[in-house]
């Protein structure tokens, strides 16, 4: 067969496999878009493990009717200039999420920027794009994803049970809600409210999402070295869990699942907690963007640090200092519900 360029729909379907590994990845991309749009409140509804339906509604800046078609076009983004790849300040920048979702599922966008008389609606299913039609809707954007992977049955086969996809979707929303504590968040799963929290400070958000008992045991942590800062909350050695599900890392407000940070946390606790147990941690790392590469993987949750040893030792040192000295714990008061 001679060499030829693939059709855009095929390219999007291939990319969808990388960007949207499972429903939770679609949830993450849509909520990140809402945060990038400056939303003050984000409501997420997940039905049938996110395979049947995902709906993310925000009150952010919206997409002008004239740009709706571009929003679902590959490599089209309002967030990145070609020069800015070294200093990424938004959660999205690759312009891949919406076209990838639209290639694998039925995607509907309803959006109304401030000043636009009505909302406009566009739909894309298996890569085929609808006409744009006017609809009534408040300011902001709703993204609705239905029948995820119906157009990519090979991927659909690899999904786990509806229950475990639901858990993964809820974990993704929780992680984003921690990363953006100053934004109100609501999550509803199969018609039942899972949480509904106002804009909060980090302390109150951790308490709301981790639950009263866990949150009250947590210890505040703060560490600075040159231009790297780590702050947040960790559990004392006496409070552990059987899984690492209560460990959330945010780097420059981006929720990440970074192996280096996870391992550093494990090392920090290694000598004080039993094997097979995991501490609780919600940690925010702030680092100059030029010391960080977030463009390692299409899902953007892994990082490359320019100075990994500095990050690792700062985190390990900070955790061990806060665990070891009772004075340190006293100086950093335990988390109180409603406090701060
Ligand atoms: P990226 O986020 O990498 O730019 P996406 O495919 O996720 O790529 O989105 C494409 C574009 O659509 C964004 O750059 C943005 O301009 C617009 N967009 C997507 N979702 C929203 C939203 N919820 N509110 C406002 N604009 C949005
Ligand atoms: Mg995006």
From TrEMBL:
<dbReference type="GO" id="GO:0006298">
    <property type="term" value="P:mismatch repair"/>
</dbReference>
<dbReference type="GO" id="GO:0032300">
    <property type="term" value="C:mismatch repair complex"/>
</dbReference>
<comment type="function">
    <text>This protein is involved in the repair of mismatches in DNA. It is required for dam-dependent methyl-directed DNA mismatch repair. May act as a 'molecular matchmaker', a protein that promotes the formation of a stable complex between two or more DNA-binding proteins in an ATP-dependent manner without itself being part of a final effector complex.</text>
</comment>
<dbReference type="GO" id="GO:0005524">
    <property type="term" value="F:ATP binding"/>
</dbReference>
<feature type="domain" description="DNA mismatch repair protein S5">
    <location>
        <begin position="206"/>
        <end position="324"/>
    </location>
</feature>
<dbReference type="GO" id="GO:0030983">
    <property type="term" value="F:mismatched DNA binding"/>
</dbReference>
<protein>
    <recommendedName>
        <fullName>DNA mismatch repair protein MutL</fullName>
    </recommendedName>
</protein>
<dbReference type="GO" id="GO:0016887">
    <property type="term" value="F:ATP hydrolysis activity"/>
</dbReference>
<keyword id="KW-0234">DNA repair</keyword>
<comment type="similarity">
    <text>Belongs to the DNA mismatch repair MutL/HexB family.</text>
</comment>
<keyword id="KW-0227">DNA damage</keyword>
<dbReference type="GO" id="GO:0140664">
    <property type="term" value="F:ATP-dependent DNA damage sensor activity"/>
</dbReference>
């Amino acid at each position: 067969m001679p060499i030829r360029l693939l059709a855009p729909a095929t390219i999007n379907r291939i990319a969808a496999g990388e960007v949207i590994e499972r429903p939770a990845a679609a949830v993450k991309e849509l909520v990140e878009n809402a945060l990038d749009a400056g939303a003050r409140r984000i409501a997420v509804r997940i039905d049938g493990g996110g395979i049947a339906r995902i709906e993310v509604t925000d009150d952010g800046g919206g997409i002008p009717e004239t740009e709706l078609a571009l929003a679902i076009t590959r490599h089209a983004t309002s967030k990145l200039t070609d020069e800015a790849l070294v200093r990424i300040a938004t959660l999205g920048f690759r312009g891949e999420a919406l076209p990838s979702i639209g290639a694998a599922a039925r995607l509907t966008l309803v959006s109304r920027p401030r000043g636009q008389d009505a909302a406009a609606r566009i739909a894309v299913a298996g890569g085929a794009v609808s006409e744009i039609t006017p609809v009534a809707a408040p300011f902001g954007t709703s993204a609705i994803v239905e029948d995820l992977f119906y157009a990519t049955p090979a991927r659909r086969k690899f999904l786990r049970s509806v229950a475990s996809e639901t858990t993964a979707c809820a974990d993704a929303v929780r992680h984003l809600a921690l990363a953006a504590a100053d934004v109100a968040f609501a999550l509803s799963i199969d018609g039942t409210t899972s949480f509904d929290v106002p804009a909060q400070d980090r302390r109150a958000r951790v308490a709301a999402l981790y639950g009263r008992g866990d949150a009250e045991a947590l210890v505040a942590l703060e560490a600075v070295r040159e231009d790297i800062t780590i702050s947040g909350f960790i559990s004392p050695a006496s409070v552990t869990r059987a899984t690492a599900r209560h460990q959330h890392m945010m780097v420059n407000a981006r929720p990440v699942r970074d192996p280096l940070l996870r391992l550093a946390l494990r090392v920090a606790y290694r000598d004080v907690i039993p094997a097979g147990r995991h501490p609780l941690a919600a940690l925010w790392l702030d680092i100059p963007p030029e010391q960080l590469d977030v463009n390692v993987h299409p899902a953007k949750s892994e990082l490359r640090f320019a100075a990994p040893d500095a990050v690792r030792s700062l985190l390990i040192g900070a955790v061990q200092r806060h665990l070891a000295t009772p004075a340190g714990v006293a100086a950093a008061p335990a988390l109180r519900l409603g406090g701060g």
